[in-house]
Design brief:
Oligomer: single chain
Structural class: mainly beta
Shape: globular
Distance between the termini: 28 Å
Order of helices and strands: HEEEEEEEEEEEEEEEEEEEEEEEEEE
Radius of gyration: 21 Å
Number of helices: 1
Number of strands: 26
CATH topology of the largest domain: Methylamine Dehydrogenase, Chain H
């Protein structure tokens, strides 16, 4: 594998490029979405790609071009470029039978789905055991769906929810929000002051984040009161924040999604002293060059995205303009992970030898000369 070199001047240009990185709009449409054991995304050419478990044909997307995709438990729905909805995968309650018409947003929950019309009116279908598809008239500017509840964000930033409210997830938070996301018995949102909070089964503040996702699936096996799905988000510098996961990749990301399930094993029972539970959660994110990275438990290869595929970036995301690995100069020595994993810690010394930096590089593909290139995504001084 060829490791390109970085000169003092190309490094400088790369750092300037970092400073001009634009923050995307908080809700930019679902370009990547994870279910229990599968993931679907939208490629650069606007076609769909899915990977992971395909036992219910949930990883076998339809042909066509699309602008949004959303994964439920074992099914998905996507919004085509002409505004129509297509759904596929397991159908237990009509969740893969969308209504006709044109829409501006699509969202899936556990086994139900909702779409938003251009006038802000929602329409929902699928399982309705908790009245989660018995939608109010709106209007809304964004919809989000959890396991068995649904919520809409109004133009004034307030939230209205319907469906299951057994843990308070359908309660109306006394705040205004710029975006919302629902998960397993939980609703979360980024407030207009930039702080991400959740209410319902999980009641927690996650600090300042620019985009978040919360796992829609909850405990499997014997259901108990312990163990929640995870939340992942993007910080202002576009790095990841996943408080419940031990390891996350470094570097700049434009979008993140969470999937998986909290599974009960061996000694599980309703008795608290015999519970043995582990998080089988995972997450995937889109890097600034469109390459997907996934982390967490890799059941059914759900955390192994296809090689050589780049996804469409969410609306409003602008990657750094400078490529920090295009010119010759000081040699770079890899001191961390294999560059084939698309990210590495490397060591760089200036011409005067007075400074050593660590640098995160993201694989940028081959240039016209056929050399592999690496894009600067993050940096800092070596302690």
């Amino acid at each position: 594998m060829v490791v390109k070199t970085i000169s003092k001047w190309s490094m400088w240009l790369g750092l300037i490029g970092m400073s001009s990185l634009l923050i995307p709009s908080v809700y930019a449409g679902g370009v990547l979405s994870a279910g229990v054991d599968h993931v679907c995304g939208i490629k650069d050419d606007s076609t769909l790609i899915c990977w992971g478990d395909n036992s219910q044909n949930q990883a076998d997307p339809p042909d066509g071009t699309f602008k949004e995709v959303s994964a439920g438990f074992y099914f998905n729905c996507a919004l085509s470029t002409d505004g129509k909805v297509a759904c596929w995968g397991l159908d237990t309650a009509g969740e893969t039978s969308p209504p006709p018409g044109q829409f501006i947003q699509i969202e899936t929950g556990g086994v139900h789905a909702c779409a938003l019309a251009a006038n802000g009116a929602p329409i929902c279908w699928g399982a309705n055991g908790s009245s989660q598809v018995s939608y109010p008239p709106g209007p809304f500017q964004q919809l989000t769906l959890g396991d068995a509840h649904s919520c809409g964000l109004k133009a004034d930033g307030t939230v209205e929810c319907w469906g299951d409210g057994t843990t308070g997830q359908a309660n109306i938070a006394a705040d205004t929000f710029s975006s919302i996301v629902a998960g397993y018995q939980t609703t979360c949102g980024i407030k207009t002051d930039g702080v991400a909070i959740c209410w319902g089964k999980t009641e927690q503040s996650y600090g300042y984040l620019t985009q978040i996702d919360y796992g829609v699936t909850g405990p499997g096996g014997y259901r108990t009161n312990d163990g929640n799905p995870i939340l992942c988000g993007l910080k202002a510098d576009k790095t990841l924040s996943c408080p419940s996961l031990d390891t996350v990749p470094s570097g700049v990301f434009s979008y993140v999604t969470v999937g998986g399930i909290n599974v009960c094993y061996e000694y599980c029972s309703y008795a608290a002293d015999r519970q043995y539970r582990r998080f089988d959660s995972f997450a995937c994110g889109i890097r600034e060059n469109g390459v997907v990275a996934c982390w967490g438990v890799n059941n059914n290869d759900r955390a192994t995205p296809p090689v050589g595929v780049t996804l469409r970036q969410p609306t409003g995301f602008t990657p750094p303009s400078s490529n920090a690995a295009c010119s010759n100069g000081e040699a770079v020595a890899a001191i961390g992970e294999d560059l084939s994993l698309h990210i590495s810690k490397v060591q760089y010394t200036t011409l005067t030898g007075t400074q050593i930096l660590w640098v995160d590089l993201i694989f940028g593909g081959a240039n016209e000369a056929g050399d592999l290139t690496w894009i600067l995504s993050n940096y800092g001084e070596v302690e």
